[in-house]
From TrEMBL:
Pfam families: MS_channel_2nd (PF00924), MS_channel_3rd (PF21082). The chain crosses the membrane at residues 38-60, 81-100, 112-130, 142-164, 170-189. It is a multi-pass membrane protein. Residues 266-347 form the Mechanosensitive ion channel MscS C-terminal domain. This is Mechanosensitive ion channel protein MscS.
Length: 372
């Protein structure tokens, strides 16, 4: 039996064509039903954006005219945030009013708007209160950062909970599930937790503060930031190094800035036949040429050790805490000036010598050579 084969049906082209036609009909129905509202919502959004731009320009101009320069940045930031929230509120209210089925969200959206404004203003009040209390109790910057971060995290969590509650979402069961997951995650992230605990320990123990110059086993630099996970320092080579808090808390940390002034040491060799007092006068005479070197406490030149081929002198002087960062350069410049002063005065700066003496071989019977 022979017959024509329906290729379109065999390849499924008819079904594909019907599916595309049905999709096109559904899309046309959606465009016909919601298209005008979508265009209207887009037009209202553009109108609100233009209105936001105009109101912002006028409001910022009034701020510059009536507010004190110190309060101007704070008022400008608060006003900008309030205007942005109002712009988003108008857009969302327009969308919920134009599209059927979204009218019930108008009330929660408006309540969230008021809630966000209240949270923002409340956070500003809390920041002001924390600043006043920190000044009253004399807290340093690191502790201020710790307290501010903790309160900010609690405030954000409270805001998320209240916003979710406006839409009927209960976060308590979710938080309970996250607590169980957090326990499991804690076992898998022991290093992270160790750094967090070490960070809190460093903030409470305060072996150094922000701006101090510290030296660890592998790094040396100025502390620019202390987070709950890392200690960040800025080295003399303009490198920014992040050290895990666990390593800093468990290592020996030298704080070069906490004591105020810093004493530097220089070793200067001198020949045995030279007079130490003359070398002392010459070395002390080069220090007044360096304004970074303090006259009080007075510099000293002492005999540190009598070596095999020379006398090792120790030159000690002090610099201010503000010159700790450049102390290696100061030390090298003073060493260069000391060498030039001794050389100009004719004092010998010896270097290690080693004498090698080759004795002749002892007489003995001649060696016998093997016959080839």
């Amino acid at each position: 039996m022979t017959g024509d084969v329906d290729t379109s049906r065999l390849l499924g082209l008819d079904a594909l064509h019907r599916a595309l036609a049905d999709t096109w009909q559904d899309l046309r129905a959606v465009v016909v039903e919601y298209g005008p509202n979508a265009l209207l919502a887009l037009g209202l959004t553009l109108l609100y954006a233009l209105l936001f731009w105009g109101v912002s320009r006028a409001a910022f101009a009034l701020l510059g005219r009536f507010f004190h320069p110190d309060a101007h940045p704070i008022a400008r930031r608060v006003l900008r945030t309030a205007l942005r929230l109002t712009f988003v509120l108008l857009v969302l209210l327009s969308i919920t009013a134009l599209f059927p089925g979204l009218e019930r969200w108008s009330g929660p959206v408006f309540r969230v708007y008021l809630l966000l404004l209240l949270l923002y203003v409340g956070w500003g009040v809390i920041q002001r209160f924390l600043h006043m209390q920190a000044d009253h109790w004399g807290l340093d910057t690191s502790l201020r950062v710790l307290v501010g971060n903790v309160i900010r995290a609690v405030w954000v969590l409270l805001g998320v909970y209240l916003v979710a509650a406006q839409f009927g979402v209960n976060l308590v069961p979710i938080l309970g599930g996250l607590g169980v997951v957090g326990i499991a995650f804690g076992f898998a992230a022991q290093d992270l937790l160790a750094n967090l605990i070490s960070g809190v320990t460093l903030l409470l123990d305060r072996p150094f503060r922000l701006g101090d110059w510290i030296r660890t086993e592998a790094h040396e630099g100025r502390v620019v930031r202390l987070t709950l996970r890392t200690t960040r320092i800025h080295t003399r080579d303009n490198e920014h190094v992040s050290i895990p808090n666990r390593e800093v808390a468990g290592a020996v940390v030298e704080n070069l800035s906490k004591g105020g002034t810093l004493r530097l040491h220089l070793n200067v060799p001198l020949a045995y036949h030279e007079h130490v007092e003359r070398a002392r006068r010459l070395l002390l005479g080069v220090l007044p040429d360096f304004p970074e070197v303090l006259a009080d406490p007075a510099p000293q030149v002492l005999v540190e050790e009598l070596e095999e081929s020379r006398v090792r002198l120790l030159l000690r002087f002090w610099v201010d805490a503000e010159h700790v960062a450049t102390s290696p350069v100061i030390r090298m410049r003073v060493l260069e000036a000391a060498k030039e002063a001794l050389q100009a005065a004719g004092l010998e700066v010896p270097f290690p010598r080693m004498r090698v003496q080759l004795d002749p071989p002892l007489p003995g019977p001649p060696e016998k050579r093997a016959d080839p």
